[in-house]
Amino acid sequence: MQNPQQIQGVSLESIAHEFGTPVYVYDGEKIVEQIETLQKAFSSVPFKIKYATKALSNLSVLKLIKNAGAGIDAVSIEEVKLGMMAGFEAPEIMYTPSGVPFEEIREAVDLGVIVNLDSIPLIREFGKTYGGSVPACIRINPHILAGGNHKISVGHVESKFGISIDLLPEIVEAVNEYGLKIWGLHVHTGSDIYDAEVFLKGGNVLFEAAMQFPELKFLDFGGGFKVAYKEGDPSTDVMEVGRIVTKAFEAFCRKYGRSLELWIEPGKFLVSAAGLLLVKTAVVKSSTTITFAGVDSGLNHLIRPMMYEAYHDIYNLSNPEGKLEKYNIVGYICETDTLAAHRQLPEIRPNDLLVIKNAGAYGYSMASNYNSRLRPAEVLVWQGKAHLIRKREEFEDLTRNQVLIEI
Ligand code: LLP
Where N6-(pyridoxal phosphate)lysine occurs, residue numbers (predicted)? Predict the structure, then answer.
């Protein structure tokens, strides 16, 4: 894996200098390339990408994704609104909530986006309220166990998501009772799925269910393509997924005379490798067995290592030729927020800039103010220029919504 010193000719050092650290930096061209790769992989069928907004929801990134020809999948009404603010038309937005109050569904319908129904009670309430006047999608739980770890495996039989494929007769009964117009069926099995066959398995569940819904316009195969987090780490062969999935999809459509669109919802595949978190070393200290490099960031900015034991490659931008030593890279949070353990890296000195890779997906979007720390800035490199796309938080942001009462 490469350790770039620059993005589109803009040096990372100059970005740190101009915008400070910690800072999330995204390579806009890389995001567009990923979209184009998927468009190529699925080009033999009518195809739509619905980017999983939750991975990285900055407005400028959304706008870039919109201009590159994708739509979005939104999992909250706030993501729907962000999408619209970034320029997506309502019909380009799929709303995939998980167990939300019906008022939120109503709001989404009023905004004109298509809602992905994920329980039988919701199908019934939707049916009672709208009958066949508002088209909808149904999220099926395909009973497939797949994904990088249990927390991100969401298509198995014990997962809270979707409606069990075993309940297909009950789904059909509820849909028919209210005359619902079902335009789409959806599965999403999990994240970090390496094996292309899993997407086909999910597809087979969609095909089985699709037989019951004559008005369908699309089948949504979900997201979850695995990206490489380190040297030698396998990643999903999306060309292979495209080949096998489109072949089965075409065969299904031909056999049953259906004319459908194929949708997918990638998050990580579009933005993970395009993003990095640039941090500065504050302190280097050694215990008897370990040398720690403490940086101006932590689990409040990148929770993946602590939450999923995720591996993020890190390199020393300031001293690439330094003598190799072993380090634990740790954050400043008052918890054991080890960002990387036992890493062999060129000597790290105070004030060295370190680059944490693959931070585009589920980095900023999962960041918090834990320890009353401020969230970092976000910078998008686009057309050879670094643009600030979110200001670093300031102390006032922490107190803005607090009410200090008389005590
Ligand atoms: N569609 C739905 C309905 C989803 O729930 C998700 C992710 C995606 C698409 C996109 O999955 P992706 O292509 O990004 O793997 N925070 C975790 C990942 C959680 C994914 C949640 N759902 C992580 O950092 O690994």
Answer: 54
Q: What homologous superfamily does CATH list for 28-269?
A: Alanine racemase (3.20.20.10)
Render pLDDT for 8-66 as a digit per residue (tens, 0 to 9): 999 999 999 999 999 999 999 999 999 999 999 999 999 999 999 999 999 999 999 99
Q: Where are the domains of the chain?
A: 6-10+275-359+361-399, 28-269
Nearest CA to ligand 1 atom 3: 188
| Cα four-point dihedral sign 267, 270, 272, 274 | negative
Q: Predicted ipTM?
A: 0.99
Largest CA distance in the chain: 73
pLDDT tens by residue, 288-309: 999 999 999 999 999 999 999 9
Homologous superfamily, domain 6-10+275-359+361-399:
Lyase, Ornithine Decarboxylase; Chain A, domain 1 (2.40.37.10)
Q: How far is the CA of 192 from the centre of ligand 1 (A)?
A: 8
Across the strands, what pairs with 355? Answer: 278, 315
d(CA 190, CA 225): 9
Of ligand 1's listed atoms, the one at least distance from the Cα of 55 is 14
